[in-house]
Structures are given as structure tokens and as C-alpha cells.
Design a protein that fits this description.
Length: about 140
């Protein structure tokens, strides 16, 4: 009985190594895409939290007349000291409130809320700082 080596099937070690190399390259690309997606989702979530915080402050002020705002915070222009807020995810947001008369029309005031934050785990000033500004122009007499 004779056996032929031509009839044996299988892969050589080089074919297996080439296949593993290609699989690792594809896997590295998928992992890179995954990391980018997670980072993008995190940034979007932080922007949504900052927007919610900013709108909350504006909604609180919307219920007050300008006279009530001046009574509570002082004379115009108002530049309120920041009140840092830390969320359950550990991100520190710093909202700043500014209320000032509009230069072209003293019957109007500009109410601005600026929220600043740094990405989780990053040091401030490392290029991962963010700011969101929301403002409304309102009449001094009317509620908004």
C-alpha cells in the first residue's frame, strides 16, 4: 500500500501565519472604530448634559422678572461666580451666568449661561476642554 503526499490536505505554517496576520489587521481596524465610537458617544453625552444644565439655569431665570433677578443677584451687569456641578459619571461642569443690558437697546437684557467642562480623566488645558454657551434676549418688563 502506497501513500501519496499529494493527497494530503491542510495548511502550511506560513499559510496559517499569513491568515492570522490578516485577521489581526482587520481586528485592529475594528477595535479602532469601536474606540472612536465610544469616545464620540461619550462626548455627545457630555454635551447633552451641559445643554441640560444650561437650559435648566435659563428656565429658572425665565420665571423671574429682570427686577427679581437684580434683587437676587445684584445690579446689572451680573457676572455670577461659577457653581461647579459634578454628575454621577464624574464629569465636572462649571456654569457661568451673565446678565447684561443690550448695548443698542437698554429695554432689553441678554441672559447668557456658559458651561465649561473637561473630558473625564483629562487635565484642564490639555486640549480636551469644552464650552457651551446659551443665551436669550429678553424684555426687562415681561416674563419670558
Amino acid at each position: 500500500m502506497t501513500t501519496s503526499t499529494d493527497s494530503q490536505r491542510g495548511f502550511t505554517a506560513i499559510e496559517v501565519l499569513i491568515g492570522l496576520t490578516i485577521a489581526l489587521i482587520v481586528l485592529a481596524g475594528v477595535m479602532s472604530l469601536y474606540v472612536s465610537t465610544v469616545r464620540g458617544n461619550s462626548t455627545a453625552y457630555q454635551q447633552a448634559e451641559a445643554t441640560s444644565l444650561s437650559r435648566g439655569v435659563l428656565e429658572d431665570l425665565r420665571a423671574l422678572t429682570v427686577d427679581e433677578i437684580v434683587t437676587e443677584y445684584g445690579a446689572l451687569p451680573i457676572a455670577r461666580e461659577p457653581l461647579p456641578v459634578t454628575t454621577e459619571r464624574g464629569v465636572d461642569y462649571t456654569p457661568y451666568l451673565t446678565v447684561e443690558e443690550v448695548a443698542t437697546d437698554t429695554a432689553l437684557v441678554r441672559v447668557r449661561v456658559e458651561v465649561e467642562w473637561t473630558e473625564l480623566g483629562a487635565e484642564p488645558g490639555t486640549g480636551r476642554d469644552h464650552a457651551l454657551r446659551t443665551e436669550v434676549i429678553r424684555n426687562k418688563v415681561d416674563l419670558l
